[in-house]
Amino acid sequence: MKTNLKYLLTAALLTPFMAQAQMPHDAIYMGKKQLCVAGMYGYSSWNHYWENSFKRENFNIGTLSTQSVMVMPAYGISNRVNVILSLPYVWTNASAGNLMGQKGVQDISAWLKVKAFQAGGFSLHGIVGGSIPVGKYVPDFLPMSIGLQCRTATARLLANYKHSNTGLYVTAHGSYGWRSNISLDRDAYQADDRVYNTRQVRMPNVVDAAVRLGVLRKGWQTEVFAERSACLDGDNIRRNDMPFPTNNMQSTLVGWYGKFQPRHIGVNARIGYVVDGVNVGQSTSYTVGVLYQINFNK
């Protein structure tokens, strides 16, 4: 169904003295005037999906695969304020049937992360972000579409506790995401068991939450995580029909993330698996990245 590219948002940095990784859902910050550029490759596939809550397969699709490459720079405005950008190129393919895969530049995203409070090992962070479609891809061709062609804005509150001696940490966050209407290349469409005589489609807003448990040490990091994402409303995939942007997509994903950053160059990897969902594919996803940091303080 939908490939949620926020799961590919991974940024990182490597300093010659302390290597760390940074993402819009962690409590790690770049130092002031430090820039990291990450190059990421992601692969996701599924051959079973939930049509509403009914889990099934579709021999007209076979295995649906989505691949992406992404450039993500992260910059430290200060030690407590960071900005993260990302721009992916995405392509899809079905192993069976005659649906043509789509490809192209998707959406440019920006995140601002602020450390609002810290006391000992505990800290609170405010994170805001948004995305704007860049490519002229077609959103009304799910599951082959590479995106939904809507503008988004997200507000996130994140709490983190890290034990200074062991590097053991636990992180939890919750987010609310607003999504704009989209415009289709047709005069009418069917959703919510009715026909709308308009090109404009109201997209459901989304919420997400996650918890992470891991260890962060000098030069390496490892963690396990669980993430939940859900639309606040929307309809369901009709029996034996294609999915539609208004569908109420929900998913629960578990996985592992790790990085190795001995100096200013490093690598990271991520594995995720959707264990439960509504109107989404039961996907397995992999992401690998190469990380490089520049220190402008020198």
Description of the structure:
By secondary structure, the chain is mainly beta. 0% of the residues lie in helices and 59% in strands. It has no helices and 21 strands. It has strands at residues 11-14, 19-22, 34-46, 49-51, 54-56, 64-76, 81-94, 103-105, 107-119, 122-133, 152-162, 168-179, 182-183, 189-191, 194-196, 200-201, 206-217, 220-231, 250-260, 265-278, 284-295. The strands form 5 sheets. The protein has a 12-stranded antiparallel beta barrel with strand order 3-6-7-9-10-11-12-17-18-19-20-21. It is globular, with a radius of gyration of 20 Å. It starts with 10 loop residues before the first strand and ends with a strand.
Assembly type of the chains comes to single chain
| Average predicted confidence as pLDDT | 91
**Helix-strand string:** EEEEEEEEEEEEEEEEEEEEE
Task: Specify the overall morphology.
Answer: globular
Tell me what portion of residues adopts beta-strand conformation. over 45%
What's the story with the biggest beta sheet?
12 strands, antiparallel, barrel
Helix content: under 10%
Number of helices: 0
Task: Report, as a whole number of angstroms, the end-to-end distance.
Answer: 47 Å
Can you lay out the helices and strands and say which pair or pack?
Layout (H helix, E strand, L loop, with lengths): L10 E4 L4 E4 L11 E13 L2 E3 L2 E3 L7 E13 L4 E14 L8 E3 L1 E13 L2 E12 L18 E11 L5 E12 L2 E2 L5 E3 L2 E3 L3 E2 L4 E12 L2 E12 L18 E11 L4 E14 L5 E12 L3
Antiparallel strand pairs: 1-2, 3-6, 3-21, 4-5, 6-7, 7-8, 7-9, 9-10, 10-11, 11-12, 12-17, 13-16, 14-15, 17-18, 18-19, 19-20, 20-21
